[in-house]
Amino acid sequence: MVSDELTVSQVARRSGFAPSALRFYERRGLISADRSEGGQRRYHRDVLRRLAFIAAAKHVGLTLTEITQALESLPQGRTPTKADWTRISRHWRARLDAEIASIEKLRDGLDGCIGCGCLSLQRCRIANPDDLAAADGSGAAFLPQPLHPDQHPGR
Amino acid sequence: MVSDELTVSQVARRSGFAPSALRFYERRGLISADRSEGGQRRYHRDVLRRLAFIAAAKHVGLTLTEITQALESLPQGRTPTKADWTRISRHWRARLDAEIASIEKLRDGLDGCIGCGCLSLQRCRIANPDDLAAADGSGAAFLPQPLHPDQHPGR
DNA sequence: GTAGAACTTGAAGTTAAGTTCAAGTCAACC
DNA sequence: GGTTGACTTGAACTTAACTTCAAGTTCTAC
């Protein structure tokens, strides 16, 4: 086999992704592969770069959908340039900053609650959406937003 | 109906939880309800306190399983005391602090990458687990851990 | 005493990001 | 040329936290 043709298990070992994940990413259009005569996948070395990008993006907390969009937004949908990488990295940084700010706000609200003397659940405003809050239908609306508004249909 | 007996829709409105969520929480043992003659749910006002607690815990990012445990660990499994609330709040605060620290670490790593001159995906160590890394099977192992190692079986 | 809103149940569906499985095919080496 | 390990596919399963649905019952107000 030509050294530029990597098998599934080789890519899996070098990228850290499970073979099943690689097939899944292929179905999702994140990566691609040629085929051998017998129909087995043969990856170009390039795929390792893409997978590295995907790994980094996942660490930052992007969803596969977002990663797909980021990859599709690249010049020819191909190897990112230095400018691309800089731009994307800065975007990620902003995201992380926003996330930190959000959690800090929540933490500070909790701190206020701990220190404010209303430690009883009966009176604490963070814990107890009482009748005043309920009267206008706001319920626990004064609470900070969830850390990670997830995509589950419910919530 | 006695004013202490709340219907599903009343609790839903005052707590901010959907009726389906209330039934779900009941199945999970987080809340409970009496029944009317005809078999309909009649909640005690106490449930609003519990739901407020649940809402706050969810905002902090606890899973329902963790919330269940927190509620079960209470004195008689009943109304939390001032000491309970203080202890639990502090625990939450520590959690938030840890989460912030984790994201900051990731952000700082990303910053180093942006500034370090290896902005090409071909050379950047964050983006490209190259052959050196691959040789020992570490792949992208030097990357920070995911922000929120979720419970999905895969990953 | 009846219309209509609110309620009941269990089962199945949803989303993300994969994994696991079964049954069969390919590749490589001796 | 045969054995063994690597690979193929599609379908079904996983987890969390609910929602949606269908088909039927209860409550309340007029």
Strand tally of chain A is 2
- Percent range of helical residues of chain A: 40-55%
- Total DSSP helices of chain A: 6
> What summary fits the major beta sheet of chain A?
2 strands, antiparallel
Determine Rg of chain A (CA atoms, Å).
23 Å
Quaternary organisation of the protein chains: homodimer
Shape annotation of chain A: elongated
- Beta-strand portion of chain A reads under 5%
Return the structural class of chain A.
mainly alpha
Biggest interchain interface, per-side counts:
A-B, 61 and 62 residues
* Contiguous uncertain segments of 5+ residues of chain A: 117-123, 128-155
Q: What is the typical, i.e. mean, pLDDT of chain A?
A: 75
The run of helices and strands of chain A is HHEEHHHH
- Main sheet strand line-up of chain A: 1-2
Distance between the termini of chain A: 51 Å
Walk me through the structure.
Chain A has helices at about 10-15, 20-25, 45-60, 65-70, 80-115, 130-135, and strands at about 35, 40. Chain A has about 160 residues and is mainly α. Chain A has a two-stranded antiparallel ribbon. In chain A, a hairpin with a 5-residue loop joins strand 1 (about 35) and strand 2. The N and C termini of chain A lie far apart (about 50 Å). Residues about 115-125 and about 130-155 of chain A have low confidence and may be disordered. Chains A and B meet through helix 1, helix 3 and helix 5 of A and helix 1, helix 3 and helix 5 of B. The structure holds a DNA duplex (30 and 30 nucleotides).
